[in-house]
Hints:
This protein has five helices and eight strands, in the order βαβααβββββαβα. By secondary structure, the protein is of the alpha/beta class. It has an eight-stranded mixed β-barrel with strand order 1-2-3-4-5-6-7-8. β7, α4 and β8 (about 155-160) form a beta-alpha-beta unit. The model is unreliable at about 1-5 (pLDDT under 50).
Amino acid sequence: MTDDNDSGRLLLGARGWPHPEWRGGYFPEDLPEDWEFAYYSNEAGCLLLPAQDWLALGQAQLEEWLDECEPWFRFFLESPPGRFPGERLSWFGDRLGGVLIDESPCELPAYVPLWRRAADAGRWVERHSHASLLCWDIAGEDLRSLRARLEDLPRATGAVVLEGGAEVPAQLADLRTLTELMGIA
Length: 185
């Protein structure tokens, strides 16, 4: 199982940033707030940013994040309603995993990977490679059910993004361990 990034790895990540409920639980209490993204990017391979999160992100902040994460780390962006601010896409450089859109038409530069919502909920498909990005809420699932989900992944899955609250970091760790044990990470 591979994706379109240069490393050929299945990317695992979270939806949304920042997560205030992670402070004091996931992040060590003495970790400065401006180090939180670096800490997260050591544990994850991608981040799905809702439109309101990435539109509020300043270029200087993003440049710091780009310096702090590995070259294979990718940002996926949800498309905002209305006019799309395409000029901001260049800020992400080659770390842009793509833009996720629903049914609405969206004009993007040809170099930007465009992910359209699939018929099944929580799945987007990239327009050229047909790779899948899956968004899961796995609250309350045990390792056995996660393993079953991973065994049923579509062959061309490039990323799995978790939604939820304070439990997401622990779930990411469990998912990463399972994918490594199963040989799909």
